[in-house]
């Protein structure tokens, strides 16, 4: 049986990015250097190479062609996390967000059966982030993607409460993706910031949102975490035990057991390991796990949904993982995409 | 059926610790302030409180009494990781190691059926560490406990190869325990350095030892990792996928797939979660998992072996987890303890 397949974790860039350094008068931003018709380099404006990308990173047509081959019906689009640029001046961060969000909104308007859009917001200035959140909603985006920390401030800190409250009130979904990862500076070799730092970052973000009481304050906030929640699900036993043994350290802002939130959050399915997917489903249930592939990047699931489809699950559960959970997280009906 | 129960992850301190600051002329060391007959505070010599401890942290008699109640036959003793003090001057680190190791060796000599000893070594000076490793072996210790990094240098770095080679050649087991954890400075609230940082640290250490080729060079090195390997086992899918997709970043020093090492390392059982223990056993096998409780600390398993005994495993598998794997890791025969 073939299910509607929605991929909640895909990244996209505009084909051409303004030279922000020239415009803003300081550097640190990512540029795209097109060196062949379908190939470009992401390069920081100080000349440091970041990553090679191909046209499936910017062309909706190229993406749809690949999706047709891969059997993916709908992609949830979000920017590439290096674009967050929370370190930029607030007004510049706002302008950058405008630009990226208008691009994604335009694609969704052109191909509403194939793409769903998440915006990015300048969380270095939560008031501006709320303003941009509202604009995103007006332009047809259904949520935002944010980092696991904002200039190393944790998401449960008081300055972000108003922003998350606005997300809940506006019904905007939140996708939390690791960036500016802890420990990157001490493990530069072997891609360890991606392989070790990112999973830890996601656990850091979840723990901060739980222990601070943010999720308790906002029971209707729909928040999903990348990479199957990183190292959080596998260490929830340790986290809960810490909470129970040292409430003087862990329960200072919220008396609720962290396990209570396992079924209030969403997770993508990007764990790369059948028994780990099984673990995640046993822990949080299929109602909380949605296909996410990290398309079009190589650390992602190259055949989106392959792991889910390989599992000995019922068709009902597979439909949940490939489609229904995504729609619930995004608060969208299936009929739009049929 | 009752099995011989060996707990590979327990910490111990001497009852009295010299005032190293006075002796060495600079501070940063941990002192013990006894304020009641069975209670003491671990305090850094600049006055910063670290942790309350009770007499089961220093008294072998108190420990044996508790072990009798808890059904633990043998404890593997190692120092409390805050004592590593890799930041100290090498000769001072050596003196500190001497002191701690002689204390543990003395207990093992007095109670050889109840305790097994691991030493600590001044890894800030690998040549001195090797010298102390040899002394440990002569004094009846069967291995060492080390940190997940040495002043933020990773364990796979070339300066440590000789030390690990000596561990292999001398047949000394290695227990890797997280300390000086990444990200601690940006997540001080909610005990997150323990709940998020420590699991990441252990993955960092394992990845560095794998990708650098250290474990490939030393096939007879017997190395165990605390807390069920931290976040490494749950993210091995991501780690392997990264290795396969970006050999230019991951395979620069070792062409072997990281999954190959899953069955060459040992892990303690301290995961606090039945389905996570199941996951670990499916991944690495019961031959690679040994009871570890983090006794006498509250983040540990308060009833050592309770999780293992609660599982629907065969008696053969339980015996492996409670005893046989530990003996293989330590290269000891069971008869010593009967």
Question: Keyphrases for this structure?
Answer:
homodimer, 338 residues, alpha/beta, TIM Barrel, eight-stranded parallel sheet, three-stranded antiparallel sheet, 12 helices, globular
Can you describe this structure?
The structure is a homodimer of 338-residue chains. Chain A has 338 residues and is of the alpha/beta class. Chain A has a single domain (6-20, 58-332), classed as TIM Barrel (Alpha-Beta Barrel). Chain A has helices at 20-24, 60-70, 90-110, 126-138, 161-170, 192-211, 214-217, 232-245, 247-250, 274-284, 306-310, 315-330, and strands spanning 6-11, 30-36, 39-44, 49-54, 74-78, 115-119, 143-147, 149-150, 153-154, 173-177, 223-225, 266-268, 289-290. In chain A, the strands form three sheets. An eight-stranded parallel sheet of chain A has the order 1-5-6-7-10-11-12-13. A three-stranded antiparallel sheet of chain A has the order 2-3-4, with no helix packed on it. Chain A has a two-stranded antiparallel sheet with strand order 8-9. In chain A, β8 (149-150) and β9 (153-154) form a beta hairpin. In chain A, α3 (90-110) runs parallel beside α4 (126-138) and α4 (126-138) packs parallel to α5 (161-170). Chain A is globular. The two termini of chain A are 16 Å apart. The mean pLDDT of chain A is 97. At the A-B interface, α6, α8 and α10 of A face α6, α8 and α10 of B.
């Amino acid at each position: 049986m073939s299910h509607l397949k929605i991929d909640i974790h895909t990244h996209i860039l505009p084909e051409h990015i303004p030279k922000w350094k020239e415009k803003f008068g300081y550097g640190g931003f990512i540029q795209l250097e097109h060196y062949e018709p379908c190939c470009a380099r992401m390069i920081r404006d100080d000349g440091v190479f970041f990553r090679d990308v191909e046209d499936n990173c910017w062309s909706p047509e190229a993406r749809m062609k690949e999706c047709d081959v891969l059997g993916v019906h709908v992609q949830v689009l979000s920017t590439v996390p290096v674009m967050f640029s929370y370190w930029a001046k607030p007004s510049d961060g706002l302008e950058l967000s405008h630009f990226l969000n208008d691009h994604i909104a335009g694609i969704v308007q052109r191909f509403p059966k194939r793409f769903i859009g998440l915006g990015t917001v300048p969380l270095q200035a939560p008031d501006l982030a709320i303003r941009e959140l509202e604009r995103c909603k007006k332009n047809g985006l259904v949520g935002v993607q944010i980092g696991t920390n904002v200039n190393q401030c944790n998401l449960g800190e008081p300055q972000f409460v108003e922003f998350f409250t606005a997300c809940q009130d506006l019904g905007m979904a939140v996708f939390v993706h690791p960036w500016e990862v802890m420990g990157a500076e001490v493990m530069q070799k072997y891609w360890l910031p991606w392989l070790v730092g990112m999973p830890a970052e996601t656990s850091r973000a979840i723990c901060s949102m739980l222990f601070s009481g943010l999720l308790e304050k906002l029971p209707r906030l729909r928040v999903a975490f990348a990479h199957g929640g990183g190292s959080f699900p596998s260490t929830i036993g340790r986290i809960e035990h810490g909470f129970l043994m040292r409430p003087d350290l862990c329960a200072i802002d919220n008396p609720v057991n962290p396990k209570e939130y396992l079924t209030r959050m969403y997770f993508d399915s990007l764990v790369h390991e059948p028994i780990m997917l099984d673990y995640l489903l046993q822990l949080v249930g299929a109602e909380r796990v949605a296909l996410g592939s990290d398309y079009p990047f190589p650390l992602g699931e190259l055949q989106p949904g392959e792991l889910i489809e390989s599992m000995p699950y019922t068709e009902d559960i597979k439909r949940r993982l490939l489609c229904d959970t995504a729609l619930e997280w995004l608060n969208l009906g299936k009929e739009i995409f049929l």
